[in-house]
Amino acid sequence: MKTAVVYYSMGGNTAFAAQQIAEALGAELIALQPVRGYPDRGLRKFLWGGKSAVMAETPELQPYVFQPEKYDQVILGFPVWAGNVAPPLRTFARDHREQLRGKRVAAFACQSGAGAEKALARLAECLGLPGLAARLILIDPKDRPKQDTAAKLRVFCDQCR
Ligand SMILES: Cc1cc2nc3c(=O)[nH]c(=O)nc-3n(C[C@H](O)[C@H](O)[C@H](O)COP(=O)(O)O)c2cc1C
Fold first, then answer.
1. Residue 50 CA neighbour count, 13 Å, CB half
2. Contacts (Cβ under 8 Å, ≥6 apart) of 139
């Protein structure tokens, strides 16, 4: 299956997982960046990002190349923000909703505590899909390495082959 891994990452945890998944599947990696970056430290990081996620904002993204016709499968990755999809990935979901119809869509979410289940359900809703073909939840895989992370990534990648 020709696969693209499309992700947004602020602190590198989602990027870390996205790179591993792309490498295991021989997939193309597409990183999203908002035009107007979110504060990435201190209280402002949580206030701005949290508010933006709760409001289900769809920030404008820096230019990226995504040619949907090239892929059978698209894997979406994002950090959980306030129990929701991080807004830059929400923009991508909104902009490519129709193009993703008929493709296999899987997703993974990185979190530090809780909320990923709800966020993944919201992503499926935003895409107008009854569910995701495969899903994975990781706890800060770069910042807090755990023994089971590699096994979880392997199972997810096997489901995406
Ligand atoms: C604005 C903001 C809101 C967050 N909200 C949550 C949350 O609701 N639940 C949670 O478990 N982690 C939350 N986190 C933590 C991140 O989801 C987690 O650290 C994730 O692994 C970061 O991924 P990244 O390094 O790719 O940005 C939040 C982080 C930020 C910046």
1. 9
2. 110, 111, 112, 113, 146
The model carries a pTM of 0.98
CB of 66 closer than 6 angstroms to any ligand 1 atom: no
Structure tokens that stand for 39 in this block: 């504060």
**Cβ neighbours around 65 below 10 Å, total:** 7
User: Which residues span the domain enclosing 43?
Assistant: 3-159
16, 88 contact by CB (below 8 A): no
Q: Whose CA is nearest to atom 16 of ligand 1?
A: 111
pLDDT digits over 85-139, tens only? 999 999 999 999 999 998 999 999 999 999 999 999 999 999 999 999 999 999 9
How many independent structural domains does the chain possess? 1
Residue 31, ligand 1, Cβ within 6 A:
no
- Work out whether strand 84-85 and strand 73-81 pair parallel, antiparallel, or are unpaired: antiparallel
Q: Quote the ligand 1 centre to 110 CA distance (angstroms).
A: 7
Contact call for residues 6 and 77 (beta carbons, < 8 A):
yes
Which tokens is 77 given?
A: 């990755």
Ligand 1 site, residue 49, Cβ cutoff 6 A? yes
